[in-house]
Design goal:
heterodimer, A: 656 residues, alpha/beta, Rossmann fold, 3 domains, six-stranded mixed beta sheet, 21 strands, 39% helix, B: 268 residues, mainly alpha, 2 domains, 2 strands, 70% helix
Chain lengths: 656, 268
């Protein structure tokens, strides 16, 4: 696995890197017509062929079968130059080839065709791979699967040990690297005690100690909460600016992209777009075609431009949007529409067009009353994971539970179907108190989808796995098949295509849908989902959230959605429950919750970009009554168009 | 879920701070000495020695009992069998085929004391040494095995990684059990076959996850230039200190005491 052990090892030249000497050339990496194919041995021709046709996801053009080996092209004829000192973002949907691109950069993979020169080294030259890896470091997605040392300092030292750096120098470098990423006070601590963001910074420190010229972050922020993501981004841009380290950042988060100096979009193994964040975001249609999204303010600017307002297309932050919109409204807002009464009318109209929240008790209502739970039953060390949590979800309501990692939201939802028993307090489902003998029957009424549910699939085929939850219900085979098909349809999969497929032939997003179907098949009235969109690309995230919304609207399911992203839940939820340190911090309708912008940010949560923008607009223009209760692009555009009198005009046109 | 692996009791006592190699070698020597003991007086000395070690390591008395609990059954069985079947001179009591001799009681008691001493003595290392240090110590002591091509570094690296992943897998097992429970798995079935079957949906995902983690870890190690033990320097160094010298002297005194009591003075 770690081949080439016998090769003689030499300490690597460090001086040239330290002195920050003038680079020989401006280009750090040059991809020249690079392609890469994965080899998959085809042992069961029939099954895989059936799979290909059915999925419609796998592009046949990417596959080539030769001598019983299938070559899947992950990258096709890529030409790309990464400049020294650049902060490059690489984006694209799941499975587009981003990770393959990253792994080529430090010779974890070698191009199948074409040449790749990194810092003057051809990555295919075998004897240079270790030298290359000490110059180009890589941070991976899962923090737990890349930490090797038992303590922080030992983990940072791991790469140096491998390079054969003498111990006195090693100690110095470890200390320096830890301090640079801001974990200098934790050298002797165990990594398992750290937060996700700290673990990823530790991983960066481990690379930094090797004095690299480039750090590749391979979806390093995908598993982190907003606080963790910010920590990692801050460290990355500091290393880029102050230490001149080239950063290649692979991500699904568009807010991070905005902070990069250049962006490359990969789609289907090819470079689809490239340019500055501003250039790319001003082409929202193309971005969406690649399964990506643009920041909400950019989307707003675009909608407004389409309606004939004069707004630059390259707005990507709140700070850029604020003066533009403020000027626009100052000049164009109609006085008769700018008073308090008409604003309130607009607000109430919007509220009514959605389905306004009314608490209804019914079979699918949930009530939690003062629940307290502690993982440590030892009275001495009792630290409550959640404390005195009370909330209610009406029949058919959509509730969002928000909070940073470790705030107790996962603990809370495990109470809702009796997996955990509260130490104090009680839970009622449909007015019936949970406890004792009825826990098992109650569990059927509350479907709980765990985080990364695809990791719990285990059966040989999709149909068998989905049917697992109803296998003991005494249903006939036909009835079971019918229920399975229904559940698959609900998650947006075509039963005919996927039913008999092996779960290992599915893409990540499909696996997650199958896992959700495995819960829906039990027909729970209440559906609880713990971060169902974690780690998915924007398109995948939207479609999973769309499924949740459909189940709520069409199926009249009560849905409880756990997330750490405000943007995700705000547009779907009737009410939002904000958790902090195991307690309920806020509970109410999204617009009211977002009023506490500062408090939310102190908790490490983000307020939707548009909510922030409209709060600012409202404050900047006291003479005009601008609604503060806005957090979706649709509402934002509506408000501005209404204020400038354009909505009305349009409505009349539409009405004629 | 928190799993404490091994029996390490955090602390900073004299014994805790000793080099793991010292502790491992002393344990080995202690075991040999215990096997040489023939008299109660030497056992008394051993008891005093162990008491001194436990007190200086700040290990509460209940932990001494705890480490014995596992072997209590074996001690009891061997004790009884020895008493019943030992043939001696001085018959104390007999009933039908059971004869109990005075020598038998003495022999059985010494046997029991020997096992107890061995277990308690060996537990000192595990109570006072972290798994990491233990691995380091073992690696250092096994280094001579390299001559016979035994991959000492690789074995130690594997052990270290395995130890690090135990709590992660414990967490994961817990999560998968909960997830399958949410899908109607019943892990409390009374029938054994049902119960074993109910763990299949846990073991398969766990196995797949282990595979995935191993793959990712290998890649991460590879990306940080890991290529086996040769040419590698070490961040964590073990150093014999004055403490180790003191420990060695104390231990030598104990050893000399045992030898003197057993072979020179033959004190019963």
């Amino acid at each position: 696995m770690f081949g080439r052990k016998k090769k003689k090892q030499t300490a690597l030249p460090q001086a040239e890197i330290e002195n920050n000497e003038l680079p020989l050339s401006n280009e750090f990496m040059t991809f020249d017509n690079v392609s890469y194919s994965y080899e998959i041995s085809v042992d069961d021709e029939e099954v895989s062929e059936g799979g290909e046709d059915a999925a419609g996801q796998k592009d046949d053009k990417n596959d080539e079968i030769k001598d019983g080996i299938r070559y899947v092209k992950a990258l096709k004829n890529v030409d790309l130059t990464v400049k020294r000192g650049e902060f490059l973002a690489v984006i694209g949907r799941n499975g587009s080839g981003k990770s393959t691109l990253a792994k080529l950069m430090n010779a974890l993979l070698i191009p199948s065709e074409g040449t790749l020169i990194v810092d003057g080294i051809d990555t295919s030259s075998e004897d240079m791979e270790w030298e290359l890896r000490s110059r180009v470091g890589m941070v991976f997605q899962n923090p737990d699967n890349q930490i090797i040392g038992a303590t922080v300092e030992e983990d940072i030292a791991f790469g140096l040990e491998n390079m054969g750096v003498p111990r006195p120098e090693m100690v110095e470098r470890v200390k320096w690297a830890a301090e640079t990423v801001g974990i200098g006070d934790r050298l002797a601590k165990e990594p398992s005690q750290m937060s996700g963001g700290q673990k990823q910074r530790l991983a960066i420190a481990g690379i930094l100690a090797m004095r690299p010229k480039c750090i590749v972050l391979d979806e390093a922020t995908a598993m982190l909460d907003p606080v963790g993501r910010r920590e990692v981004m801050k460290v990355a841009s500091m290393l880029n600016k102050e230490h001149g380290i080239t950063i290649v950042h692979i991500t699904h988060h568009m807010d991070e992209v905005a902070a990069c100096s250049r962006v490359v979009v990969i789609d289907n193994g090819m470079i689809a777009m490239s340019g500055t964040p501003k250039e790319l975001f001003s082409r929202p249609a193309e971005m969406r075609a690649c399964g990506l999204e643009v920041p909400a303010v950019t989307a707003l600017a675009f909608v407004l431009r389409e309606k004939g307002l004069e707004i630059p297309a390259d707005i990507i932050t709140v700070d850029e949007a604020l003066p533009v919109l403020a000027d626009l409204l100052r000049a164009e807002a109609l006085p008769e529409l700018s008073d308090l009464a008409s604003m309130q009318k607009r607000e109430s109209d919007r509220r009514e067009s959605k389905h306004p929240y009314v608490f209804r008790e019914g079979p699918n209502s949930v009530e939690a009353d003062g629940i307290t739970y502690s993982y440590n039953s030892d009275a001495k060390n009792a630290h409550n994971a959640i404390e005195n949590v009370s909330f209610s979800a009406g029949d058919g309501e959509f509730i969002g539970i928000i909070g940073h990692t470790g705030c107790g939201k996962s603990t809370l939802v495990q109470h809702l179907n009796g997996l955990l028993k509260p130490r104090d307090g009680s839970i009622s489902i449909g007015g019936e108190q949970m406890g004792g003998a009825n826990v098992k029957s109650m569990r059927r009424r509350v479907g709980l989808v765990f985080q990364y549910p695809e990791y719990q699939l285990f059966e040989s085929t999709v149909a068998r796995d989905v049917a697992f939850g109803i296998r003991n219900d005494g249903l006939s085979e036909e009835e079971t098949a019918k229920r399975v098909d229904e559940a698959l349809v609900q998650v947006g999969l075509d039963p005919k295509d996927v039913r008999e497929k092996s779960i290992y032939d599915l893409s990540g997003g499909q696996k997650r849908r199958v896992a959700i179907a495995g819960i829906l098949v039990m027909k729970p009235g209440i559906l609880v989902l713990d971060e169902p969109a974690a780690g998915l690309d924007p398109a995948g995230r939207d479609s999973i959230l769309e499924i949740c919304s459909e189940l709520n609207k069409k199926n009249a399911n009560t849905v409880i959605l756990v997330s750490h992203s405000m943007d995700d839940v705000a547009r779907l939820c009737d009410r939002v429950l904000v958790m902090d340190h195991g307690r309920v911090s806020m509970f109410g309708e999204p617009a009211d919750v977002f009023e506490n912008e500062q408090a939310l940010e102190d908790m490490g949560l983000t307020v939707p970009q548009l909510s922030k923008l409209f709060h600012r607009l409202n404050e900047a223009l006291p003479e005009i009554s601008i609604s503060r209760k806005i957090y979706t692009v649709e509402d934002a555009a509506g408000e501005i168009l209404a204020l400038t009198g354009r909505l009305k005009a349009e409505g009349e046109v539409a009405g004629q | 879920m928190k799993v404490s692996f091994g029996q390490y009791l955090p602390g900073s006592s004299f014994i805790h701070r000793l080099d793991p190699r010292t502790k491992l070698l002393a344990t080995l020597a202690f075991m040999v000495l215990v096997l040489l003991i023939k008299s109660f007086s030497a056992y008394a000395l051993t008891a005093v020695f162990l008491a001194a070690v436990f007190i200086s390591a700040h290990i509460p008395f209940k932990y001494v009992l705890r480490s014995l609990r596992a072997v209590l059954f074996i001690i009891a069985i061997t004790f009884v069998i020895n008493i019943f079947f030992f043939q001696g001179k001085e018959l104390l009591w007999s009933w039908k085929f059971i004869h109990i001799y005075k020598d038998g009681i003495i022999f059985s008691a010494k046997m029991a004391l020997r096992v107890i001493s061995l277990v308690i003595g060996a537990s000192v290392v595990t109570y006072t040494t972290t798994s990491v240090n233990l691995t380091d110590g073992l690696e250092a002591l096994m280094r001579p095995l390299k001559i016979v091509r035994f991959p000492v570094h690789e074995a130690a690296m594997m052990m270290g990684i395995a130890l690090k992943f135990i709590p992660i897998f414990a967490d994961e097992t817990d999560r998968i059990i909960k997830a399958q429970t949410a899908r109607g798995s019943d892990f409390d079935s009374r029938r054994l076959i049902e119960r074993v079957k109910s763990y299949i949906p846990v073991l398969i995902p766990l196995f797949i996850s282990a595979w995935r983690r191993a793959d990712e870890l290998a890649q991460a190690m590879n990306a940080r230039c890991y290529r086996g033990g040769s040419g590698r320097t070490r961040y964590r160094v073990m150093k014999f200190s004055k403490l180790d010298l003191i420990a060695l002297l104390v231990f030598l005194a104990y050893g000399a005491g045992i030898i003197l009591l057993t072979y020179v003075f033959s004190v019963p």
